[in-house]
């Protein structure tokens, strides 16, 4: 019998399964896939949030790169905030006409 576990987005899993030398390639692939998805579906709004709260600046860089992709696909950032209790960061984008 197989046992499924919930997703683990922790840094330790990344260290265990994703070689440091491949992380930039994976982020680039994610950005290309996101752009394809946004340009194909042309949804009106996009939301994004961090899985963990209180992330350090180094961890937030990938989110900045993702925000750039979303903007290049014709979306404006409507709101962004960090929840004061959880430290989780949120972004809300809307498609420009």
Can you give a write-up of this model?
The protein has 97 residues and is of the alpha+beta class. Helix content is 43%, strand content 21%. It is built from three helices and three strands. The chain has helices at 11-17, 23-41, 57-72; strands spanning 45-49, 75-82, 89-95. Strands 1-3-2 form a three-stranded antiparallel sheet, with helices on one face. A hairpin with a 6-residue loop joins strand 2 and strand 3.
Q: Helices and strands in order, then pairings?
A:
Elements: H1 11-17, H2 23-41, E1 45-49, H3 57-72, E2 75-82, E3 89-95
Antiparallel strand pairs: 1-3, 2-3
Helix pairs in contact: 2-3
Oligomer description? single chain
Strand order of the largest sheet: 1-3-2
Please tell me the total number of domains: 1
Q: How does the helix and strand content classify structurally?
A: alpha+beta
Range of strand content: 15-25%
Low-pLDDT residue intervals, each spanning 5 or more residues:
none
Strand tally: 3
How big is the Rg?
15 Å
Task: Output the CATH topology.
Answer: top7, de novo designed protein
Level-2 CATH architecture: 2-Layer Sandwich
Helical content stands at 40-55%
**What can be said about the biggest beta sheet?**
3 strands, antiparallel
Give the distance, in angstroms, between the N- and C-terminal Cα atoms: 51 Å
> What is the number of helical segments per DSSP (H or I, 4+ residues)?
3
Class in CATH? Alpha Beta
